[in-house]
Amino acid sequence: MIDIPAGTFRMGSNDHYPEEAPAHRVHVDAFSISATTVTNEQFARFVDSTGYVTVAERPLDPADFPGAPPENLVPGSLVFRMTSGPVDLRHLSQWWRWTPGASWRHPEGPGSTLDGRADHPVVHAAYEDAEAYAAWTGEELPTEAEWEYAARGGHEGRAFVWGDVAVPDGRYLANFWQGDFPWRNDQSDGFAGTSPVASFPPNGFGLHDMVGNVWEWTTDWYSARHEADADKPCCIPSNPRGPDVEASFDPRQPQFRIPRKVIKGGSFLCADNYCQRYRPAARRAQMVDTGMSHIGFRTIEHHDHLGTS
Ligand SMILES: [Ca+2]
User: Fold this and answer.
1) How far is the CA of 79 from the centre of ligand 1 (A)?
2) What is the pLDDT of residues 254-299, one digit of tens each?
3) Cα dihedral 159→160→161→167 (10° resolution)
4) 174 alpha carbon to ligand 1 midpoint, in Å?
5) C-alpha 268 to ligand 1 mean position (Å)
6) How far is the CA of 270 from the centre of ligand 1 (A)?
7) What is the CA radius of gyration of the chain?
8) Tens digits of per-residue pLDDT, 37-62?
């Protein structure tokens, strides 16, 4: 765990995707955060000692899916599959496949294993799986503000964790996608899929992979925009925790009453031609019951003993 000092910073961005705006000032108290995302080895230790079964490994209840064919009601998760050529980027189902048997133990489905991936981030963890792990270690998941403040590494207003240029002097400083998503992965950064944690240099706070590699769960419910700046400097929000759960339902899919949390940091699938979200301000909504092959998490500890809670 790395100690992060209390501070005030500018959260969000007015220069990228609309959900990152408006940039606004926020204060966060001191906390500690894990230097890397939780690895397969760490998650295996948790499962071995508790017998925990992740959401992706549990049988589905037919009552929750009226009309669904029984063969679809088997445990599984969404796995990324490269397409054979260029596709219409509006249709995610071309590269996201519901894969029976996919879970953290079998990241690409049955037949895939964790061999050689002990130090890769655990993936296919739904929100409650991440929370259960954090409860076991006596830690918590970060709020979006805590996560973004940590990701910025003490620097204000940078587009990327390391500066304002995606690939400074041709150096790759995170695991994202080079080439044409979702069919040509040039792997200029050395990795087609997830990479071992800490394969890239740390940020200003000593934290690795705050962007790229895997998206990371936060505790905030999602809403499509940030709150604006407070009118007066006196009134900067302190330790904001996001909007109410009602804000998080997907307005384009009202039939799904599954709340959505904010995930941060982008992943090995972020490509400039599709989703330039390997940046600290970037954010996405993720249904709480859905882990995927590009989502992981890291944990934090609050310094409540200092009386700041
Ligand atoms: Ca890559």
Assistant:
1) 16
2) 888 899 999 999 999 999 999 999 999 999 999 999 999 999 999 9
3) -150
4) 8
5) 5
6) 9
7) 19
8) 999 999 999 999 999 999 999 988 88
